[in-house]
Amino acid sequence: xxxxxxxxxxxxxxxxxxxxxxxxxxxxxxxxxxxxxxxxxxxxxxxxxxxxxxxxxxxxxxxxxxxxxxxxxxxxxxxxxxxxxxxxxxxxxxxxxxxxxxxxxxxxxxxxxxxxxxxxxxxxxxxxxxxxxxxxxxxxxxxxxxxxxxxxxxxxxxxxxxxxxxxxxxxxxxxxxxxxxxxxxxxxxxxxxxxxxxxxxxxxxxxxxxxxxxxxxxxxxxxxxxxxxxxxxxxxxxxxxxxxxxxxx
Length: 249
Ligand code: URA
What we know:
Elements: H1 3-11, H2 30-33, H3 35-38, H4 67-75, E1 93-94, E2 100-104, H5 109-114, H6 121-132, E3 141-144, H7 158-175, E4 179-183, H8 185-192, H9 198-201, E5 206-208, E6 213-218, H10 221-226, H11 231-247
Parallel strand pairs: 2-3, 2-4, 4-6
Antiparallel strand pairs: 1-3, 5-6
The structure holds uracil.
Uracil (URA) binds near residues 104, 105, 108 and 184.
């Protein structure tokens, strides 16, 4: 593990265990660092806890659009009421051929202002989390279920999610990621079409969509900022996702 990764782990409050005997500076083998994740070994658990019900979305309007067409469709979208309150849409950012796709809930105030997902405090923590598993922010693709900010950061409504998801689905289709990391209860429950609590959705590899893309659920970085004790579980989830991406050909 590089010094930079160790620094980010320290910033995340995640202890890196070291051998005391003989060489106090020698880190434990990678296997030991992964210990926490082996209990959650990345099995492609077929079963979701609730069937992927139809979201009641009409024929998806962005079907077949290329990146530029899709970006324009999102930019000009007025399909739900959220367009009235936005400064701008927040399309998504990153590599269009990324191995790893991160999906959050919806833009917050800072994202609405800058037009980019996860740029506030939660975004800074997300960057640190990614660095800890060896990814630069620029290497992954980051998007949200909703492309517009809900007023006062309220939870997205199911109708807004249903209206906006076809854009996300087209992004996923174009990217074809090896793995998806769903951050937070809202994104996880929506993508998996379940109301199972996030504590039970994480810890097992799920699948998304007809392509069966491996999907790992973890806590939202905003939650981790408030609840640092959850960071060790988040680290386990990150290790699972890192292992999936590095194993898939
Ligand atoms: N929270 C999210 O879920 N997405 C963002 O882009 C910012 C905060």
